[in-house]
Amino acid sequence: MKNGKIDFGKLKKESMDSVSPIERREFLRVGLIITGVFAGGTVLSVLSNFNKVFASPEEAAEKYPYKPHYAMVLRQDRCIDCERCLEACRITNDVPSYGYRTRIFEKDVPDAIGRTREFIPVLCNQCNNPPCVRACPTKATIKDKKTGIVLMISDKCIGCKTCMLACPYNARYFNDERGAIDKCNFCYDTRLSKGEKLTACAAACPAGVRNFGDLSDPGSEVYKMVHQLDKVVWVIRPDAAAKPNVFYTKG
């Protein structure tokens, strides 16, 4: 902290320095896969491929009958890396300096016209088919039957880190203070359960990057954004078949 302000650039470096070589290689592997999506890799059109990574509206209502069905759509090209979302998340959820619930990856685009760097916000994808839940030996990580949010029950966590290895998005870390794995839960305990409508990161974003809402409500903004036909919508690592509830678009 410098002059009362958290140096997130330093925290990113310290976070990388604190992990083992194996974990670092895993982080880089996932990072390369993620940035590869935006470098001309797999992009999924709502019109032709949405049902492959999630489900058609009719199938979604049957397979994933969550009410509300929380989801987030990120307008990736609007991110300016101001890190207000990171700061809001840390303060709201008491995230330690070495931890994270959301991060922002950077990607240089040297041949681009005008802006030559893009920023890619990432967080737990709150998967409908979560590998972490299947991997946990103590049922410390669960899929909430009402909202679909993937939650951590810290009292049941034995710190085996199996869920960390299973997660396709490297979205978890071990919280030393809690003695348990921690991750994004869409601010369920700190905001949603208290009547707030937005996650801390979505409320703090000044550029309209993070759009949060109810995917089961056809009138909600996230539903309209995910099912629009005039813009491309995609997910990270569709090959993992995790059926994420975090989507990306531009514009």
What does this structure look like?
- By secondary structure, the chain is an alpha+beta fold.
- It has one domain (8-249): Alpha-Beta Plaits (2-Layer Sandwich).
- Helices cover 29% and strands 18% of the residues.
- The chain is built from 9 helices and 10 strands.
- It has helices at 8-17, 21-38, 46-53, 57-63, 84-93, 131-135, 162-166, 200-204, 221-226, and strands at residues 70-75, 102-108, 117-123, 141-143, 150-152, 172-175, 180-183, 210-214, 233-234, 246-249.
- It has a 4-stranded mixed β-sheet. Strands 2-3 form a two-stranded antiparallel sheet.
- A hairpin with a 6-residue loop joins strand 4 (141-143) and strand 5.
Helix % is 25-40%
Structural class: alpha+beta
Integer count of domains: 1
User: How many helices in DSSP terms?
Assistant: 9
Shape: globular
Largest sheet: number of strands, sense, barrel closure:
4 strands, mixed
* Average pLDDT figure: 81
Question: Mind telling me the C-alpha Rg?
Answer: 17 Å
Placed side by side, the strands forming the largest sheet appear as: 8-1-10-9
Number of E-type strands: 10
- Give, in order, the helices and strands: HHHHEHEEHEEHEEHEHEE
Question: What is the strand content?
Answer: 15-25%
Q: What is the end-to-end distance?
A: 34 Å
Would you identify the CATH architecture? Answer: 2-Layer Sandwich
Indicate the low-confidence ranges by residue numbers.
1-48
CATH topology: Alpha-Beta Plaits
CATH hierarchy, class: Alpha Beta
